[in-house]
Amino acid sequence: MQKVSFDEDRCKGCELCVGACPVNIIYLGENLNAMGYHPAQVHEQGKCISCGFCARMCPDVAITVWKEGAR
Ligand code: SF4
Ligand code: SF4
Q1: Is 53 helix (H, G, I), strand (E, B) or coil?
Q2: Any residues with Cβ below 6 Å from ligand 2, and which?
Q3: Global pTM?
Q4: pLDDT tens for residues 18-48?
Q5: Residue 20 near residue 49 (C-beta atoms within 8 A)
Q6: What mean pLDDT value characterizes the chain?
Q7: Looking at domain 4-65, does it have CATH number 3.40.50.300?
Q8: Which residues in 4-40 are b (16+ Cβ under 10 Å) and which e?
């Protein structure tokens, strides 16, 4: 089940979410988004604990987190 999603075209690649994630699963992608930034991505959804820290840190409100059973 998907727990976290990134709106890649809102992301400015600031890496605040990368540092905020306690399980270190957020990386900046190799690709460029519409604004020319490397957007944050999560590849290991299964390791996400839905803590929401990344979404709270993001100044551009690019991250959505779902809690277990609350989707
Ligand atoms: S919700 Fe928490 S565990 Fe999941 S990607 Fe964001 S910071 Fe990491
Ligand atoms: S905090 Fe937001 S804008 Fe910054 S890298 Fe993460 S998703 Fe992108």
Answers
A1: helix
A2: 6, 11-17, 40, 57-58, 60, 62-63
A3: 0.92
A4: 999 999 999 999 999 999 999 999 989 999 9
A5: no
A6: 95
A7: no
A8: bebebebbbbbebbbebbeeebbebbeeebeeebbbb
